[in-house]
Write a structure and sequence with these properties.
The chain is α/β, with parallel strands linked by helices. Helix content is 34%, strand content 14%. Strand 1 (8-11), helix 1 and strand 2 (33-37) form a beta-alpha-beta unit.
C-alpha cells in the first residue's frame, strides 16, 4: 500500500508523464485525484473528461484511468489566484504540466506557462502544506560542458541551449533564491519514452517515430553527426522508460528515507546509449533486420543539439531509491510489443 494519502493534484495529467503517473497511482489503489490539463474550452470542474470527437488526442490517455475530477489548467490557475481555497486541500501536488517544445520561439509564452504558473502553484502548495514535486528538465544542462550533476549549489553555471530549457532553469534559480528547494522537489527528466506519448507530435520519442517509419517504409531515418568526435548514429543519450520515470517521481512523495527531502534530482537510467543501439532494439522488438538511413540535421537544430547526455543518479540513490532501472532492450520490447503494436494506452 502506498504511503500517499488524501487528495492528489496532477497537472499535465492527460499528457505523457502525467497520465503515466495517474496510472501508477491507480495501481497503488489511489483514485482521489484531481487532473488538470488543457483539453477542451468547455471543460470545467467536472467528474469526467469530455471525450468528444474534437477532443485532443491526449484526452484519450485518461480513458482507462480513475480520478475524481478534471479541470482545465487555465481555470485551475485563475480560480486559485482569486481564491486559494477554491478546491480544498491536497496532500501532494505533482506539477507536470508545461510546454516542452525545444523549438518554441515565444519567450513570453514560455515564461508564463513554465515559470510563472510553476511559481504560483509552488507558492500555493507551500502555503497549504502540500508536498510539491515539479518537472524541471535535463534541458537546463545545455550542451553538458558544465556537467550534468544535480547539485543545486551553483545553478548559474548552467546554460540551456533553447528557450524551453531556459524557462525551466529560471524557475529552478528562483526557487533556490527563495529558499524553496529545501521544501520542494524538482525532477530533471532525461530522454523519457513509453506509452501515452502519441499526442506529442514532433516531440515524440524516437521509439514512437521509428515504429511508424518501419510500418510505412521498413526503414528508419537518423540524423547525421555534425561533430567529428561522434560518428553518424553514435550520438549518445540517457534513455529512460516512462514506467521507471514515474516510480522515481512517486518516490519523493512516498519514501525518501521517511523524511521530506528537497532539491533538484536527475531522473535517468544512469547510462548513455547511442541512437543506433536504440534503433536496433526497435527493429529487434519487431523481429526485423535494421535498415537505417542517415539524413542531414536541420540547420536550426545544429547549434542546439545535445550530443551526449547521461544522468548522474547518485543523489537519487542517496535518498533510498533502490529499484533497478529497466534495461533499454527490455523497455523497448515492452513498449513496442505491448503498446505500440496493439495501440494500447496505460491502464487499458
Amino acid at each position: 500500500m502506498s504511503p500517499l494519502h488524501g487528495r492528489i493534484l496532477v497537472t499535465g495529467g492527460a499528457g505523457f508523464i502525467g497520465s503515466a503517473l495517474v496510472w501508477a497511482l491507480n495501481r497503488r489503489g489511489l483514485t482521489d485525484i484531481v487532473v488538470a490539463d488543457f483539453l477542451n474550452p468547455d471543460a470545467l470542474w467536472r467528474d469526467s473528461v469530455p471525450l468528444t470527437h474534437n477532443a485532443p488526442e491526449k484526452a484519450h490517455n485518461l480513458r482507462p484511468l480513475k480520478f475524481s475530477s478534471f479541470i482545465e489548467a487555465d481555470v485551475l490557475r485563475a480560480r486559485l489566484l482569486t481564491d486559494p481555497t477554491a478546491f480544498g486541500r491536497f496532500s501532494a501536488v505533482f506539477h507536470l504540466g508545461a510546454n516542452s517544445s525545444t523549438t518554441e520561439k515565444n519567450a513570453a509564452y514560455l515564461c508564463d506557462i513554465n515559470y510563472d504558473y510553476t511559481r504560483q502553484l509552488a507558492e500555493w502548495s507551500l502555503a497549504q502544506g502540500a508536498r510539491f514535486i515539479y518537472a524541471s528538465s535535463a534541458a537546463t544542462y545545455g550542451d553538458g560542458t558544465a556537467g550534468m550533476d544535480d547539485k543545486d549549489d551553483n545553478l548559474s553555471r548552467l546554460h540551456p541551449l533553447n528557450l524551453y530549457g531556459q524557462s525551466k532553469q529560471d524557475f529552478d534559480v528562483f526557487a533556490q533564491r527563495e529558499g524553496w528547494l529545501s521544501r520542494i522537489v524538482g525532477v530533471k527528466y532525461f530522454n523519457v519514452f513509453g506509452p501515452n506519448e502519441d499526442h506529442k507530435g514532433d516531440m515524440r520519442s524516437l521509439v514512437n517515430k521509428a515504429y511508424q517509419q518501419i510500418l510505412a517504409t521498413g526503414r528508419v531515418q537518423l540524423f547525421k553527426s555534425h561533430k567529428p568526435e561522434f560518428k553518424d548514429g553514435e550520438q549518445m543519450r540517457d534513455f529512460l522508460y516512462v514506467k521507471d520515470a514515474i516510480e522515481m517521481t512517486l518516490h519523493f512523495a512516498e519514501h525518501a528515507q521517511g523524511k521530506t527531502v528537497g532539491g533538484l534530482y536527475n531522473l535517468g537510467s544512469g547510462e548513455a546509449n547511442t541512437w543506433l543501439t536504440l534503433t536496433r532494439a526497435i527493429f529487434g522488438a519487431l523481429g526485423r533486420e535494421p535498415v537505417i538511413d542517415f539524413i542531414d540535421m536541420p540547420e536550426v537544430l545544429r547549434g542546439k543539439y545535445q550530443y551526449f547526455t547521461r544522468a548522474d543518479v547518485s543523489k537519487l540513490r542517496a535518498t533510498g531509491y533502490t529499484r533497478p532501472m529497466t534495461p533499454l532492450t527490455e523497455a523497448v520490447r515492452d513498449y513496442v510489443q505491448n503498446y505500440l503494436v496493439s495501440s494500447k494506452k496505460l491502464g487499458t
